[in-house]
Amino acid sequence: MNQPGEKRDRWNVVLAEDNDDHALLIQMALEKATSVPVEVRRARNGEEAIDLLSQGLPDLLLLDLKMPGMAGHEVLERVKGDPELRSVPIAVLTSSDRDEDVARSYGLGGNHFITKPESPAELERKLRALLKNLSELAEIRRGSGELTPTAVSAVDPAAFQASTIVRWAMIAGILIALFLFARMTGVF
């Protein structure tokens, strides 16, 4: 049975992580975080990550910042600057919790920033939330789900125009009342 919001038969993930132990823990947490199979293609550095992305777009790139050769921020910059690759969701998964790394990652186009937690259970929880979020976003992009009718009614041009006219009329009434009050009290 799929998790809420999960309508897929598998996850295809590129994991850019140079530490073998971390990579194994992340892969195990990914597999526990979802009820569907997870195909993980691993890159040990930034160059390998770019190569794997070029071979086929994944559902997600999990990106460590501190890797030999091309580091994570450079990978992020290259991926988001490439028209063929920029649509790949990128979650930075790193041991850093520095504000500068968080800000730079989002500034370069990263979609998520996760500091590697101490416990495998916490990592699994964070990855479950990430995958659920990505599934829900994919569902919205497909135009399915309960959001379509709400979006249509919220953008009804006639209702929007009428409410705008009412707001302006109320503002005009308040301004006139303030002007009359100021005149009567001798302010001007």
Write the layout of secondary structure elements.
Blueprint: E1 11-16, H1 20-33, E2 38-43, H2 46-55, E3 60-63, H3 72-81, E4 90-94, H4 99-107, E5 112-115, H5 120-142, H6 147-154, H7 157-184
Parallel strand pairs: 1-2, 1-3, 3-4, 4-5
Explain what this protein looks like in three dimensions.
With 188 residues, this protein is of the alpha/beta class. The chain has 2 domains: 11-142, 3-Layer(aba) Sandwich (Rossmann fold); 156-184. The chain is 54% helix and 13% strand. The chain has helices at 20-33, 46-55, 72-81, 99-107, 120-142, 147-154, 157-184; strands at residues 11-16, 38-43, 60-63, 90-94, 112-115. The chain has a 5-stranded parallel sheet with strand order 2-1-3-4-5, sandwiched between helices. β1 (11-16), α1 (20-33) and β2 form a beta-alpha-beta unit. The radius of gyration is 24 Å and the shape is elongated. The relative contact order is 0.12. Mean pLDDT is 85; it is low at 1-6 and 145-156.
